[in-house]
Each structure stands twice: as structure tokens, then as C-alpha cells.
Amino acid sequence: MGANMVRRLLAEGYEVRAMVMPGDPHASKLDRFAEVQVVEADLADQAAIDSACEDVSHVVHLAAQLVRGATPVDRFFDVNAFGTLRLLEGVVHAGGDIERFVLVSSDGTYRPGAPPAVPLTENVPQEPADYYGTAKLLGEIILRNHAVQFGLPFSIVRFATVVSPEEAPNIFRAGFWRSILRWQAMGKDSHLWPLFENQPDLAKLYDAAVRDVPADAAVGLTGPDGEPWTLSMVDVRDAVQGVYRAMTAPGAIGHPFNIAAAEPTSHDEGAAVIAETFGVPQLMVEMPMTFRLELSIDAARERLGYEPLYDYRDMVQSARRAVSAGEFIPAEAESGVASTWHDG
């Protein structure tokens, strides 16, 4: 998201200061933008953040750690919640005279392993019950409180699963869903733990069903009644559009917005795209329940004028056409899309 957001801001005529982690291996994505001022600052370093916030008109806060892994819980919360606090303090220390502070949050704040509604709107309860979702929700609360306390104009975007087009062909494959369902072994350390609660055999059932299926086969999941599972995703190009509109639209101030594709992708549709595009076999695997993770974007359409341009088929076709040089900057993530499936 970061490099693609920088690209959009430059195209719109903004001067851009990009804050990156010290030693960030992905900072090289910004080398193509000679006019961008790149500064290094750890989200725990208030002095460095204060310096980065001097003389800025807008702050777009995209930084987050999605997967906790071996990171201590307090450090994980420090990055995802108190990093937001320090950025806000940086704005306050710089005088607080900004046009907009945009916080990028997540569908993880809705407890995605057991969605409280289908589709999810911005008004449903945010009760995440996991480390990442809780930390992101705390960041939202900190932002709202600082906005009232210091008169800061703000908006919040909650991403569906953000996908860079070159990652899209990895989804709806036998190997992809195997890796997702094996998150069950993480126990309560996964944001998806509610999905596995009272369902201890999902990974085993899946492995038995795809035992003789190639890892690149097109696979989707269905419930026992044949109803396919669903997933809300958003192409990185549409995600950039949503953030830019949250940063500039007058109707965005003070509101949260779900940012996703126009429609969720059903597993049968996603698997069909892979099978048709790559000529691989297609299989639908029955699970003991139906799982639907869907975000409503009605509020973003109404208040922001947000209108997503890309569905899952478009993402896959973009990857096939290798259009990145003209349309987006690839993710270049070593771990692939599976590590970021739950969010942006």
C-alpha cells in the first residue's frame, strides 16, 4: 500500500514525505520516486516521529504488524496501537494544524473468524477478541479521543483483504487453503481462531479431500448445503483510491469506511477464475459449516464517491498481462499473500 499510495499522491501533485522503518528492506520501492523525501523512524521513537511530522498537511497512517509471530505481545500492541498514539502526538507537537489524519484499520476489528453480521457495516459491534484486531481497534479509539481533545480532522478506513494483482493467482488454489486452515495449529494466537472453535477437524477434512489434488489446482470451500464460502478482498489500486478519497472528501471527516471490492468473491467464482485462466482442475471441498466474510461499502460509496474498479477476475487478468509497470507497484512480499490474508 505504501509505495502505491505515494505514487497516487505524486500524481495528484502532492509533495510527499514517506516514513519507513529503519533498515526496511522494502524501502527500495521508493527509489523510483526521486522527489520523495524518505525518513526513517521506528514507531516507538517519538523524537523521530516528531521530526517526520513537521510541516505536513496530511498524515496517512498505513504502518502495521499483521502477524504477531514471536513478537512479544506488548511490542505488538506498541506497534499497532501506541504507534498511532505517537503519530498523533507528533502532529500535536508540530502544532496540530493538519487537514486530515487518515488511519488505515482493518476488517480484523469485526472479529473476522466469526463475523457478527453479513455483510459487515461500519455500525456492527467491534469486538475482535484477538491481538491484531484488538490493537487496531485501540488505535481507532486513541485517534477518536485525540481528535476531540486537539481538534484534529480525521477519517478511518477498514480494509478487506488487500491483494496486489500479482498475488491474486495464488488464491483459490489447493495449497493456499491448506496453509490457511493449518492456522488452526496457532490456537488463540490467530485472528481466525473463532473459525476453528468447535471445529477441530477442518484441516484434516480438507487434507483428506485434496490428498490427490495438485497444489496448484483450483479449490474453493462450501458449507454442507453446497453454499460456497465468501471472502471480501480489495485490489491494491482500489485500496489506494479509498484512502485517497478518505483523505480528501469533505464527507469523510469523523467517519469510518469499509474499503473492499464491489462484491465479495464466492469460492466457486474464485476457483472458476483460476481453473479457466490457468487450465487447472477445479474442486469444491465441503466443510461442516459455511463461512462468509463480507464487507458493505455503501458508506464509502455515499460519502466518499468510492467506486471500486477491480474484482477478483480483474486482479488475475492484470497479473497475467503484467501491467504493474503502468498501474501498480508489486508487493514483492517474500511470504506471499497467505501471510496477509486477513487484512491489508
UniProtKB/TrEMBL annotation:
InterPro entries: Epimerase_deHydtase, Lipid_A_modif_metabolic_enz, NAD(P)-bd_dom_sf
Domain called NAD-dependent epimerase/dehydratase: residue spans: 1-260
Protein's name in the database: NAD-dependent epimerase/dehydratase domain-containing protein
UniProt organism field: Prauserella flavalba
Top-level taxon of the source organism: Bacteria
